[in-house]
């Protein structure tokens, strides 16, 4: 049984921490939100105390941005045991992650970048895809824990490869929504029925897992968020920043980012990122209410 300190029990962090607990490990959690901590307690998770960090075999974190990672990473580097493994699952910039790696290396803490692909529903169902990079022995030690999150785990290298791979995956997810926005708007403009289009697309050569998953809601014009427009803009900023650093031209991705901002301007910031469908529909003079 591992002693685990888990920072950040949001929509992704809470189910991941719960799976670790259900696998028989001792898990204590920390979060700035009292509401999230109450939910964690209801799930049977203990709250971290003053000495929890220094006693942990593994420290996990699921954080919203670079600033949060840098703040938590500094605390982990200062307070964790020198032989502990720090496993961060956040979607952040390669630069911020590299800075945390430097802090951990000075203190002898092994730092495993462990990004995940999947939404909160997939996290709850233990169907995440795990992408890891960092010390190979840290990955091997963490494997039994990571296996509680989903069936697929990939080791990608000894540095920031997992961060970049997550951005590649999210680029393709964002671009899928842009593809749907244009294709579905064309179909509607030409007189095709909304639900008919979804049935055909799901059975066609373009019926990818992400398209089929989105069709469950979107075929009924349900834009309840699994990942909001604002959250996707944050990821697109990270993607375009990574591309600029290596001089990779991402023209279509830059245009998709502009569509996301159009959705924000039109009042859809907190809808699912697929709300850029509505932004394109409006540009085509189509109503967004089909009732």
CATH class of the largest domain: Alpha Beta
Judged by helices, strands and strand pairing, the structural class is: alpha/beta
How can the largest sheet be summarized? 8 strands, mixed
Distance between the termini: 54 Å
Individual helix count: 13
User: Which overall shape is indicated by the principal axes computed on the Cα atoms?
Assistant: elongated
Mean pLDDT, rounded to whole units? 96
The number of strands is: 8
Proportion in β-strands: 5-15%
| SSE series | EHEHEHEHEHEHEHEHHHHHH
Instruction: Tally the structural domains.
Output: 2
Provide the gyration radius in Å: 20 Å
Q: If classified by CATH, what would the architecture of the largest domain be? A: 3-Layer(aba) Sandwich
Low-confidence region ranges: none
How much helicity do the residues have? 40-55%
CATH level 3 topology of the largest domain: Rossmann fold
The CATH homologous superfamily of the largest domain corresponds to NAD(P)-binding Rossmann-like Domain
